[in-house]
Fold this protein.
Amino acid sequence: MINVVAQYELLAKSNYQNFFTRFQRNNGELGVSIQIPLLTGSAAKGLASQAQTDILELRTQMGQIRNRIQLDTQKSYQELRKATSAQEVARLDLDYTRDQVSLLLDQLGEGRATQQQVDNARLAEQEKWIALYDAQHAVENARLDLLRQTGTLQAALR
């Protein structure tokens, strides 16, 4: 290994002029430093084996992270499918309840049902609407989580 070495000094006048007959205030040096390794030993082999160990460790960590991301993505897909199924069930339940309200309104017009029964059916219909909105909200949350997990959230928002 070859290095260039330089050094510059600016010395004070008063201290050195009293002792030396010839004094230069500005002093500079330029030189070359040469290092020749005579005994390298096993350091290079040790560094190479350490690098190989580090590479294997990084590959292991990369595999673990890849597996974790894959599992999280599969879980997000499952959550989305589950939320979509729950939304469909809520929609079918609402449709059934709306049919019941229509039937009771027809029966009320014919005098075979009471206003209390119709009011209870409408209250049940409102609860089914709330359940449907909750299911839709769960689907949107699952979809956003999946987009975030796959890294496509920003592209989807554009």
